[in-house]
Amino acid sequence: xxxxxxxxxxxxxxxxxxxxxxxxxxxxxxxxxxxxxxxxxxxxxxxxxxxxxxxxxxxxxxxxxxxxxxxxxxxxxxxxxxxxxxxxxxxxxxxxxxxxxxxxxxxxxxxxxxxxxxxxxxxxxxxxxxxxxxxxxxxxxxxxxxxxxxxxxxxxxxxxxxxxxxxxxxxxxxxxxxxxxxxxxxxxxxxxxxxxxxxxxxxxxxxxxxxxxxxxxxxxxxxxxxxxxxxxxxxxxxxxxxxxxxxxxxxxxx
Length: 254
Description:
This protein has six helices and ten strands, in the order βββββαβαβαβαβαβα. The chain has helices at about 85-100, 120-135, 150-160, 180-185, 205-215, 235-254; strands spanning about 5-10, 15-25, 40-45, 55-60, 70-75, 105-110, 140-150, 170-175, 190-195, 220-225. Helix 1 crosses helix 6.
């Protein structure tokens, strides 16, 4: 059965827009952490602004068990290339869910609605999506993070720089920050992962930005993964798994 949810929000320009969510599919089993149950998957069509195409989003949630408690929230931004209906979900299931499932977080994996994750349309859409998740689920606002790969890594830097009050930590993978985002991004706890053999965003080209972030930030970790190229997305799982422990410590400290 389809359900429609409506929720008003105020955009960056101060106008109110309606967020309409239509439930498309329910409960596809996904592997969960040992002893913590499985994850369920739903797919939402998120209409974040009148007249704009809905943003297809895969939502992963730990199966309910025990007393209800506020959960962390992870926004997962996929890589570039052609966007199919399953791009966001494929990225989440390839990298983010296997690596970060131990956090017991709600994971949002939208399809990019703009020309990239730094596009103002995309920024507006994902902020509305996060606001919707907070209003419809028990989310601990102190434990909200954004992660992304390649184009998604670039978007991760942008959201961390512009919205530190929403994203309390950021984990960009195989991305590079815009020069205009460096100073602000450094104020947010960052766990940066990059492949040593990345041929699309070469490490030598990214290194000056990474050094600037480390110099200007108070909690900036840089992990260079030996031998990994840009297109070995699933091979980044072990490195991203280590970020889960860092996220726990960072959230606890804040």
